[in-house]
Amino acid sequence: MAEPFSVWAPSRSRVRLAVGGARHEMARDDRGWWHTEVPGAGPGTDYAFLLDDDDKPLPDPRSLWQPNGVHEPSRRYEHRAFEWTDAAWTGRALAGRVVYELHIGTFTAAGTFDGALEKLDHLVDLGVDFVEVLPVNAFDGVAGWGYDGVLWGAAHEPYGGPDGFKRFVDACHGRGIGVILDVVYNHLGPSGAYLDRFGPYFAGKNQWGPTLNLDGPDSDEVRRYVIDNALGWLRDFHVDGLRLDAVHALVDTRATHLLEELAVEVEALSAGLGRPLSLIAESDLNDPKHVTPRAAGGYGLDAQWCDDLHHALHVALTGDTSGYYGDFEGALPKTLRSAFFHAGTWSSFRRRTHGRPVNALTTPGHRFLAYLQNHDQIGNRATGDRLTATVPWPRVLCGAAIVFCSPYTPMLFMGEEWAASTPWQFFASFPDAELAEAVRTGRRREFAEHGWGEAEVPDPMSPETVRRSTVDWTELDAPDHRSVLRTYRALIALRRGHPELADPRLDRFKVDHADGWLVLHRSGLRVAVNLGGSEVTLPLRATSVLLAAEGVSASATGLTLPSNTFAIVGVS
Description:
Blueprint lengths: L1 E7 L6 E5 L2 E4 L1 E2 L4 E7 L6 E6 L22 E2 L23 E4 L1 H4 L5 H5 L2 H7 L3 E4 L3 E2 L12 E5 L5 H14 L3 E6 L11 H4 L3 E4 L4 E3 L6 H18 L4 E4 L13 H16 L4 E4 L21 E3 L1 H12 L13 H7 L6 E3 L4 E3 L13 E3 L4 H5 L13 H12 L4 E5 L19 H16 L14 H7 L9 H19 L12 E5 L2 E6 L2 E6 L5 E3 L3 E7 L4 E3 L2 E4 L3 E7 L1
Parallel strand pairs: 8-9, 8-21, 9-12, 12-15, 15-16, 16-17, 17-20, 20-21
Antiparallel strand pairs: 1-5, 2-3, 2-6, 4-5, 6-7, 10-11, 13-14, 18-19, 22-23, 23-24, 24-29, 25-28, 26-29, 27-28
């Protein structure tokens, strides 16, 4: 049986397909696509393309399998061959849920999909609803964060390849956990990005690498490349949602923005599959348009990360007001009420006004993800130190109580739930020595500008950096770590058992505060947190205590909280 092959290369005068030792001429259609058929070249067949008279074989831009790395031939992959067991999975909407961010390569010592699925029972016991997986697309080297991907449809082979990722998703669904995949459409990595050799895929560069041509000549097929990739993860890998990396770096001047076009296509796929599919943006713009429904003039995405909430929490917990944190001193109450602190207001870091207000009457809080930590906020610190490296864990638990009892969608980063002592540092493993040295030098130069000595910045190319960044599951045997884990479990269970703690209505959310303490009003419940330096007694007459830190006491005269404690109580 003859198997079809095709590739888009509109500006090439000749394209050949390499299969085994043979070269097959391809025919061009009027849209710039080249086609041929090869008998017997079914699943498992390695193939590559030769452009014009160049004899260098290049992998397929739409490759689904790169068993030998991003510079080598692609391998035919058949989705229908995988035996799924998740037929009963009906998916779940994002609203009211808890998200757990993890990186496959450092979630376990094995650093694979199969290694990660062995820890799923821990996540079930914790009570999370979704895992948000850092990018698994193919990138050059073995270890990396995944944001230097160059073949977006191929699951990274060192993690276990496409079948390995499907086993992971299937196992998550079997335990009632949805899967959100981090995807990167704003740039490509520095090694193995051959797209521009096939056609006008690139339109320039940003701080991370080449950017896509989304609105110039011949950009229709480039946009289709992005959309088809997104739909492929959702449809063929049964993924439940996508986290769209740094959408503010997508340059698109068309009347219909790529994000809106993608939302329309995903909505249609969701209807066809009969299960919810979510799109979550990461954006630096503080523009509610991303999560505003299309009927109201927005892009129609389901949610977005909210760094303002992180920054306000970080400053409240650490006292750190360096860099962009300087704007967030004392900003926690306001930011909790409004999601965006910068909402058409002055940003000293940017030296301009920034953002637009969120309409509390029409925009539910669940459209914003709230977190104490994530891969960026940890990994982009010079030493990759977690919050608990400098903040006592009882104080961090106060922050966790705020996050899990807020109107927003809570997210935690792997290991946070037990105050993991392992850092999460920046690492890569580019085989090219010159590129590796450039990354190493650039990283050290970046932090030298902020006062860090060269010896203090971990070598991103060292396997030891990856080892240090791998979470240590044996810590769960230590009493303090177990205590933190118990509190995280209790907070998530309370959120699930008391719907008022997940109520997303921002117009009904009230925050009282003074002298380092806060009280979140959650219908008939109050979440009281004391981040001040001394004990406080609040005039709250508790009818019940749902959860309280050690040392908290409730009486007829009020609720007494020592420093760095919290309590969740019912009130009359």
